[in-house]
Specification:
heterodimer, A: 311 residues, mainly alpha, MetI-like fold, 14 helices, 78% helix, B: 286 residues, 76% helix
Chain lengths: 311, 286
Amino acid sequence: MTRFLIKRIALLVPVVFGIITATFLLMHATPGDPALTYLGNHPEPAAIAALHHQWGLDKPVTQQYLDFIGGLFTGDLGNSLFYNETIVKLISLKLPPTLMLMIMGSLFGIIFALPLAIWTAIRKDKFIDHLVSLLNAVILGMPIFFIGAMGILFLALKVQIFPVGGYGETNLQHLWSLVLPSLTIGLGLVPLLVRSLRTSVIESLDSEYVAFARSKGLKNRSVWLKYALRNGSISGISILGIQVGYLAGGSLVIENVFGIPGMGSFLMTGILNRDFPVIQGATLTFAMLVVLVYLLTDVSYALLDPRARFK
Amino acid sequence: MSTSLSLRPNILSRLRGFRVNNFRLYLGIFIIFVVVAMAVLASHLTKFDPISQDLLNTLQGGTAEHFLGTDNLGRDVWSRLLYGGRTDLFLASIAVLAPFVIGTVVGAICGYFSGWVDTLVMRIADVVVAFPFYVLVISLVFILGNGVGSIFIAISLVSWVAYARIVRAETMIVRSKEFIEAAQTGGISNQKIITRHVLPNVITQAIVYAMSDIVLNIGVIVTLSYFGLGIVPPTPDWGRMIAEGQQFLAGGYYALTILPALAVVITSLGLSFIGDGLAVALRVKR
């Protein structure tokens, strides 16, 4: 296991380095001048020069790159142009709601998807299988903000169960205001999860150990609960891990629909305010989050299934 | 005579099997044909300009004149749906071409030669997929500035990775086959082997994936314009229509939001059906 961990983390180094470089390039080597974008139409040349100096854009690109990496190691991502606060401080405030949203969203996704996957796997090619696959295609085609808007319309405006948006004041209110957004993300995840989960359940039901269990006289119900559900949950972990990009993108959109003050609305306000350090910091955080989840997925999978350690 | 007799049932049964199994493919093609025809023939299907405002007739339900009603600026909803489809469909399908070509070529080269080029490209791919699709595309569109060109470049920079990975994996399987070895021993150039023998065997995977990729593109384009990025008003587009209609949901004007969303769903459904059907017809495992 230690060897697996070392190998896995060593593989991570070039990717993390690449992410840092890509984020840097995104902001510094792209056409257009951030100062011009920031100042709007017809700015004073002196103002441009002042901003360039403030952001260190008057230094050579290599020096800027080294400064950027040096800043990362000392936990300095610069200051927001609007909030008068360091990026690191802002991210530490905005990250918890997003993490919570992603966790609750994936929980709802699994809760919806696992029974559907097992059901359609057992009734493979029957009516219910086709119906679920059709519904999946419909949900897959729905923009996630539309699912959110419909949720608000029916569950917050018509039947007033959930708040229309916002994040509340107390911890309990925070949690309660995240339910509808997480339900939305969970629903969006269902088609992605069901498709792969169904395949893995079918595989485990076709396997020799299930045939053996049946030959011992095990009833259908225990086969489904003991083998289909358990194996389905294990592969569910890795499938969820793969979908973390979708989760992050979904929370970016959903936070803006529901007005949740997380990383997604942070990035979007950064974009609307033309707040370059914010965009840079938020993009970097999202990418690091994805890489971290990939790592955790691989490690937990290796813990559950020793064979994965020797691949 | 005897050959034709023995052939006939064979062909017939194959055709029948194809038709029955591939209901989805034909349904998908039909849906997309109708949607595309409506977008292309937009100017013949409505007499209204999608962007001309009529402030005396705002927020009307269906009337004889405007049969799907008008929006908050008195613009004809039916006309905006048609022209919006033109914008979104055109952009989504154009934005699939560059990633398809780049990804397929890169994937085939990486899979065929392996070595350090392969390692380098795959590490770059790892970096690209570390950024959530929406996060990267939205940031890129911001940096490149609003507009159709920016959307096209942003999607291309991100989406090639999926094609490259799919085609690379398939190429590595094909590369180990005997007919490739035979071609190599026969002294055929690597370039010719890739174009003549590798690509025809691996491209079907990429084609099937392209269908779900267009669905992804429609999703991201619509989401961008929902947030006021990318496609600039007054150009009609489904995402902007949903965003504007949403403000009137609480007032009971559901059609303004639901109709464009329905257009997105039907289009995506058609494309998914084609993708599923093609996967069956081309015997591609997904």
